[in-house]
Q: What sequence folds into this?
């Protein structure tokens, strides 16, 4: 799986003059059942978050408020996606390095994850990630 598997998902948007509503139902709107939800907020100006890849974990990242950039890298190709709509989610499969930056003031980033937290599923060293992707026999 590479960066071509990353895609924006349009979430249902119910228009109402009192305020819009979006819904995410597991198994309907995203390509996996989520087991964990977490969110980032109060990110200081100039800070970068993430800086890792997951081996198997799938995620959908949503800009609930404000905006930020998501840089993705499959070890061969890179892309940058700007998120600023609470009714769009960015699907990221396993084996994709991701970094989040350029957070606007008061932004909130929500992440839906396909599994519970497991430190053994993480690549936290970029060079080790690239080596594992480009030469799978070298993975430790």
A:
């Amino acid at each position: 799986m590479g960066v071509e598997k990353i895609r924006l998902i349009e979430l249902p948007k119910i228009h109402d003059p009192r305020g819009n509503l979006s819904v995410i139902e597991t198994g309907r709107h995203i390509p996996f059942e989520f087991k964990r939800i977490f969110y980032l907020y109060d990110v200081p100006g100039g800070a970068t978050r993430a800086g890792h890849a997951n081996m198997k974990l799938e995620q959908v990242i949503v800009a609930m408020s404000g905006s930020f950039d998501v840089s993705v890298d499959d070890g061969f190709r890179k892309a940058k996606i700007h998120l600023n709509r609470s009714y769009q989610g960015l699907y990221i499969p396993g084996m994709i390095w991701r970094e989040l930056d350029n957070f606007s003031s008061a932004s909130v980033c929500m992440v839906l994850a396909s599994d519970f937290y497991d430190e053994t599923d993480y690549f936290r060293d970029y060079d080790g990630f690239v080596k594992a992707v480009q030469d799978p026999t070298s993975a430790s």
About this structure: The longest strand covers residues 59-65. The CA atoms of residues 124 and 134 lie 16 Å apart. The domain at 3-138 is CATH 2.60.120.10 (Jelly Rolls). The helical segments are 126-134.
